Each structure stands twice: as structure tokens, then as C-alpha cells.
Amino acid sequence: MRIVTLASQKGGAGKSTLARQLAVIAGEREPTWLLDRDPQATTTKWMARRAEIEGVADRPELLELGNTSLETAAGQVSDQPGTLFVDTRPAVEEREAESIRVSSFVIVPVRPSFDDLEAVGDTLASVKRIGRKAVIVVNAAKHPRRAVEARAALSRYGVPVCPTHLLDRAVYQDAALNGQGVAEMKGAAARDAEAELRAVWTWVLEAAGGE
Question: Which domains are assigned to the chain?
Fold first, then answer.
């Protein structure tokens, strides 16, 4: 199994949204799971809303550890097909380090703001120290120009930066409220968001060597 951790020391980077949306898209081709390690339980609540929708795809599923450690659980499912997306809290402490250690690779979402660009170095340093590969995705961009500028600034870290950015779209809020992926929604806004996400996931797999 491929294990993908979404990590960022900075709050509001969009880890939960990105984990859910990518899990829906990846779930079209393979089994996918979500593991919620954020005390706010945003992803768990989204999954609860999703369970109430008739006819929605049965992927992703929610993985609950119970009394099992993450490292033990990762070992138990390592030979299974599919992808597990791990949603973490806005920190890079031992709990997050554990998630990074078991990962195939780490996605670091970054908003194109000065504060976020300034803070990402600590997250990347932690991933490097643990010995895992990271890729960066510019997320929730208000304007394409800001996203381009952010990618240029992020290039100095020597970490692959996705050439496709994700715009800040209201449709993600609708998807969160309804327990859906944008790929499961109708309308031009959903289609535009879906196209960006598919491009990001395709690039991530190639850049991280995840197939």
C-alpha cells in the first residue's frame, strides 16, 4: 500500500481538503482510505456526512486505529493494494513525525502567502530529517500570478514543486459541507477544480515515484 501523509506546520494550509479530494480521485482506480490524525476531526466529520449520501462511491473508507499504533497498522496493510491518505494536525511534532516515518512520501500544501512561504522550511526540514521524500503543492491560491511567484520562491528548497496550483474555490466548501469530492459534483466550478486536482495527483505520483 502507498501511504501519503499531508503535513504542514502552518495551520490553514488545506491538508484536510486536499487529502479528501485526492482520496476521492485516487479511489476511482484503487482502494483508498483516510486516516484522521487531527484532533479537530475535520476529515472524520466529512466522512460521517458522506455516509449519509445515497449512491456515493464507497471509496475512500475511513481507517480507525483504535488501540493499534500507526506503525503497527502500517505494517499490517503494507502488502495491500491502494493508497492511505493521512491527515495531520498543523504541527510537526512526534505524532506527525510518526505519520511521516511510515509514509511512502509526504505532500506539503502551501498557501501562496508570505507567512506560509516563510513557515514551510521547518516542515521540509522535519521531513528530510526523518528521511522521507516530500513534494510541494501550492494550494488555495487567490490569483494565478501569486501561485507562480510562490512556486518560484519555493524552488530554493530543492524539493519538487507541482507545476499545477490549486485555486481558492468556493466549490471546495460546498464539497466539505456535503461530504463529497468535487469530482462527484456537477457544474463548471466543480469541473475546473477537478481538472486541477487530477493534474496534481498525476504529477505527484510521477514526482514521488509512487507509480
Answer: 2-207 (3.40.50.300)
